[in-house]
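User: I'm putting together notes for a lab meeting next week and I want to include a structural view of one of the chains we've been expressing. I don't have a solved structure, so I'd like a prediction I can at least talk through. The sequence is below, exactly as it appears in our construct file.
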Amino acid sequence: MAAISAFQCRFLSASKAQKAIRKTGRITRVITAKPAHATLSGKAELSKAAKPVLAAVLSNALIALPSFAGEPGKIFDFNLTLPIIASEFLLLMVILDKTVFGPVGKALDDRDALIRSQLEAVGDNSTEVANLIVRYF
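Assistant: Thanks for the context. Below is the predicted structure for the 137-residue chain, given as structure tokens.
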């Protein structure tokens, strides 16, 4: 006869487990399964899978609460902050143009001019190559 394992007993209801015990005649280990939500003090406790889900739902609700404070459907608030942010952006662009983009652009222009002057110095040397071939061969 086969014995009922502890794993099987955990998932069988009480009546099914008793029928299986009567049928097999023995049990390897008796486990009294407690519900996942019950504790010793009798208070309800969340399962391990429900805790992260509940935390995600609560954090999303807390993040979304400020969006319900204003008018519904209004995305932007056009008040004094808009011109302040626009002026900060323009000021940032001027500062970056003077400190970063200007020197980098100048370095790129200098490099381009150097490469063009070297290419012009080399020029079209196909006639010189043809004269050397005729002269030595």
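A couple of points you could mention at the meeting. Residues 97 and 103 are 9 Å apart (CA to CA). The radius of gyration is 41 Å.

User: Perfect, that's what I needed.
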